[in-house]
Amino acid sequence: MDKSRRRFFSDAARTAGGAALIGLGLGLYARKSASLPAEALRPPGALPERDFVGACVRCGLCVRNCPYDTLELARFEQSIATGTPYFSARDIPCEMCEDIPCVVACPTGALDPALTNIDDARMGIAVLVDQENCLNFLGLRCDVCHRVCPLIDEAITIERQHNARSGKHALMLPTVHAEACTGCGKCEYACVLPEAAIKILPQRLARGAAADHYRLGWEEKRRAGESLVPEDPEHEYHLPEGLDYDHSGDGLVPEELPDTPFPDDPLDTLNQGANP
Amino acid sequence: MNGPRRIPGREAITVKGWWPAYRWLILRRFVQLGILVLFLLGPLAGLWIVQGNINASMVFGLVPLHDPLVLVQSFLAGHVPEVTAITGALIIIAIYLLVGGRAYCAWVCPVNIVTDTAYWLKRRLRLKGSARLSATTRYWLLGTALVVSAVTGVIAWELVNPVSLTYRGLVFGMGAAGLVVLAIFLFDLLVSERGWCGALCPVGAFYSILGRFSIARVSAVNRAQCNDCTDCLKVCPEPHVLKLPVYGADTGASPIVLSPNCTNCGRCIDVCTEDVFRFTTRFEKTHNPIPTLAEETPS
Q1: Interchain CB distance below 8 Å, B165 and A82
Q2: Tens of pLDDT along A48-99?
Q3: Can you tell me the ipTM of this complex?
Q4: CA distance A143 to chain B (A)
Q5: A37, A130, B89, B201: which has the fewest C-beta neighbours closer than 10 Å?
Q6: Which domains does chain B show, CATH number per domain?
Q7: Ramachandran angles phi, psi of A174, nearest 5°
Q8: How many Å apart are CA B182 and CA A78, to the nearest integer?
Q9: By the CB < 8 Å criterion, does A104 face chain B?
């Protein structure tokens, strides 16, 4: 009896040990799988990655309902969580359907049904990563990324700047505005260079963040309609009579009186001849 | 061993004829492959009867189906699913409560074909030797998968689950998932006989738990006619479920196979020459004649 009991406990301990080991491996793998590679973009409305990997059941209904074959399910060998949907902007970008069929098809809410206006999607942010090769930065008028942008003149604008190289032309610079960019990837897809100069990056890589207490003075001034700090008073010097203040370090110095070898009338100087 | 080796199921063909000796196996493969074909008709032929894969799907764009185990993991990972997913999972639970929990394993799961083939080949090649794994290991693995999901916030088993890897592979493109299928085939063939489905798979463990309450059951209703050929035990993927119902008459055990591990594959019905087995429900009244004194007395 005692023997069989001991055997039972040793068997259970062995199985539990094995399960714990597998659990540890699986857990580490699961943690790793939750870090999405930067070049893989989630479909519109995807929950933040940490929540997404707990909500997406890898059924592929979003993939099937995408009219443009944009989405794919991650394969086992990829470093994206197995079976979850993603797209690569340079291969097929998101066409930003107005009815967002991928979100409608999602049975679990991993693609948030609260997203009803595709312009509110935030799949990533376009960043002009290579200013050395971008044709517009070289002074040409390529403009393709600007032209294909579904939110042209909102998400990408063309900003003029002086072309210092030629000295007489303008640089027309494609400029991304993060508050409007959905990360659809059409700019990256359309970039004419062999390797795109503008790329969609995840928010965490694309953006910095200002500290909460930072205020832009000119913004505050505009909002308030007036400056929030009193105007600087005109600086006045109250120096002793006949003294001046030297800013380069000498401090108080005698006031410099007009001291010049030339008489007031320039004709006198001219008439002086070669030897004064 | 003397004389020609007895191949389980051979005798049934000669006694009952070919169709009765393979009926449930063929029906089962038909359903198994039929469901796969339904999923493939969309991407291959543009005929969208079913969209999605075995984890979750939409039938005729109307009826959602959803794997309940995946939903449980998702819930533990901290996500409250939409009504569509919950509805789909309830439909699936209802179906398997009706047809038998592990009917999923025998009638739907694609890995079943792989492991059945490995078992068949092992017998054919007369490969001896097998690492013994406890049949309860799967429950430990199921618990592990659930704990890992809860701790990491990731639907953990779906990262490696060979069942959905295979299905997703077939419907959406295989990639390295094929290696996982190969690994399971080799594991069953060379390492542990019936090891994956019979001892390890946590999906099978989950459907076993459903099977504890499911209605459709195999019953050894004519066990009195059993001639001890043991073919049923040799073809059964979970032989331990048959022992009491077939041989337990004198202990008063019910002839109904109530063990949750039974997959309702029906292969025992096929191979039995004496028609001991048939499908029934768990509620069927079985007249368990109390053994007479004469029968009880050892001769």
Answers
A1: yes
A2: 999 999 999 999 999 999 999 999 999 988 989 999 999 999 999 999 999 9
A3: 0.86
A4: 37
A5: A37
A6: 10-16+218-296 (3.30.70.20), 27-209 (no CATH)
A7: -65, 130
A8: 18
A9: no
